[in-house]
Amino acid sequence: MRISVLAARTMLTAFGALATVACSDHPLPTPPDAPSRSADVSEIGDPFSVGLKLVADGLTSPVAIVSANDGTGRLFIVDQVGLVRVLTSDGTLLPTPFLDLRSKIVPLSPGYDERGLLGLAFHPQYASNGRFFVYYSAPRRAGTAFNNLATFAEYHVSGDPNRADPASERVFLTLDDPQSNHNGGTIAFGPDGYLYMSIGDGGGANDCSPSAPPALRGTHVADWYHAFLCPDGQENGNGQDVEHNLFGNILRIDVNGPLPYGIPADNPFVGKPGLDEIYAYGFRNPYRFSFDMGGELGLLVGDAGQGRWEEVSQVVKGGNYGWNVKEGSHCFNATSSTQEPASCPSVVESGVRAGDRLIDPVIEYANAAQPGGLGVVVVGGVVYRGRNLPQLRGRYVFGDWSRSFTTPDGTLFAATPRGAGPWVIQELRITTSASGRIEHKVLGFGQDPQGEVYVGVTKNTGPTGSTGKVYKLVGPSGKEKKRK
Questions:
Q1: How far is residue 355's CA from residue 347's CA, in Å, rounded to a whole number?
Q2: Which residue has better confidence, 439 or 29?
Q3: What is the pLDDT of residues 281-323, one digit of tens each?
Q4: From CA 84, how far away is CA 73, in angstroms rounded?
Q5: Distance from C-alpha of 174 to C-alpha of 149, rounded to nearest angstrom
Q6: Are 120 and 69 in contact (CB under 8 A)?
Q7: Which of 269, 378, 438, 467 has CA 20 to 30 A from 315's CA?
């Protein structure tokens, strides 16, 4: 473990200015590398029936449901507007927030906004040390032209186990974010004890930016990238740029090391060209990711598509997941995002990352921009390891936000892993709904220590109102199995 150059710079600049310049002992299970495929999409199987049980309502935008794994049976609901709420083991949603960050986040647009309080992770030893971590969008720093300040901070619980200590905040990483969208948003501890964080490509269309300050722009990634350059006057390639900023990546850091954080010694770019914090790259907007609590399927990342394809990738250390050379397994052209080029590279052909393979997703489907598309945007989920739905055990449960931007019409799916080719996906038909659909927009998923799955939803397009709810997946009868 070591402190990165970026982290050291953070200490010297009081955490605020680092992004204007830049951007184990218990290893993770390593799934097989995804095979190289060409424009291969997931097979759609027959629908599968599940029930939903309401466990919390009156929320605004419940984007994540997180367990502290502290033996209390509580779940913590992350509301995008800046609140963390406690759901007790007996199903009571406490009226007083565990943490209230509304005064710290950027003012949100009620019509639609991807900013806010986005992520929450409890330290693996939370029961004894009371440490937890959040990711939120703060207002931009004074005197800058950015949109917001992506902020990663540590907090501690107070003497009341259902209340955090608001004065305990320690900001350990900030990124000057040029756009309001493509923020990523998940933070989670892996089985190796390190903290993983997902960050989008900086926003804007096509991973091109006409306005981002030069220090945040990607660089033209050598000759191999020439066919996919952005329009004149726009810089491109944060997803493929590992040297100049942290956008478009999954990061991995050691929060048990020297302040502000340490770097795992086996991170892929330690001692090589590239920023030490990066674990994997080539993402557009990796909004939701999770680790298979059973260990079998490793790290699964849902990455929002640009205009045609949605994807979920099985992510390995040092992997390049293609954006913006590819959208899913399909070639992508930033100058005309709806016109798929006839061919594109399958590996990085030159430059500091020459030889890196562009890894295709394990799940891919057409979105609503195409005839027969399944929805507007993928929402990454979790691998089911519970008892209520034994037929789903070992399968990946995820969703799509909505089949329409305006009408709340999200979809739940289950994907069955297979050794070669993309995973088969099935719609989960909701037996507890007259329409068989969830009739809300899907925002995020969570899992309790028993492996049961929860989903956060809302009726609204933006972070406003009180239509937000959390459901638990149960059997088709709408009832849970009693634990022995």
A1: 6
A2: 439
A3: 999 999 999 999 999 999 999 999 998 999 999 999 999 999 9
A4: 16
A5: 6
A6: no
A7: 438
- Which position has the token pair 């293609």? 322
Distance between CA atoms of 29 and 314, rounded to whole angstroms?
Answer: 12
Distance CA(163)–CA(100), nearest Å, equals 10
Residue 3, strand partner residues? none
Topology of 5-474 in CATH?
Answer: Neuraminidase (2.120.10)
Report the pLDDT value the prediction gives residue 230, as an integer from 0 to 100.
Answer: 59
User: Residue 208: its pLDDT value, please?
Assistant: 73
The answer to whether the CB of 35 falls within 8 A of the CB of 50 is: no
Q: How far is CA 381 from CA 208, 422, 442, in A?
A: 28, 17, 11
**Distance (Å, whole) CA 377 – CA 305:** 7
The label of the residue with tokens 């740029």 reads 241
Taking alpha carbons only, the member of 74, 65, 180 closest to residue 127 is 74
CB-based contact 240:325 (threshold 8 Å): yes
d(Cα 134, Cα 98) in Å, to the nearest integer?
12
Residue at token pair 């493929």: 240
Rounded to whole angstroms, the Cα distance separating 277 from 353 reads 16
